[in-house]
Amino acid sequence: MNYFLATFALMLIVIALMAVGVMFGRRAIKGSCGGLNTGSCVCVEKCEKRKKMEAEGQV
């Protein structure tokens, strides 16, 4: 039971630190466009929503 409580506490600390990092970094957590973060995207062309976000300067 002690191992469970120690592991649970450690996981809570890690999650709290990630949340604080996101709050102070002011950037949302994003995916890597469908795979390893190698820069190659599955999408051939950008969708309308993405084009609109880039035009507004939100990306």
Helix fraction bin:
55-70%
> How many strand elements?
0
Strand content: under 5%
N- to C-terminal distance = 46 Å
Give the averaged pLDDT, no decimals: 76
Order of helices and strands: HH
Number of helices: 2
Our Rg estimate from Cα atoms comes to 18 Å
Topology of this structure?
Elements: H1 2-25, H2 48-56
What does this structure look like?
With 59 residues, this protein is mainly alpha-helical. The mean pLDDT is 76.
Compact summary:
The protein has helices spanning 2-25, 48-56. It is mainly α and 59 residues long.
List keywords for this structure.
59 residues, mainly alpha, 2 helices
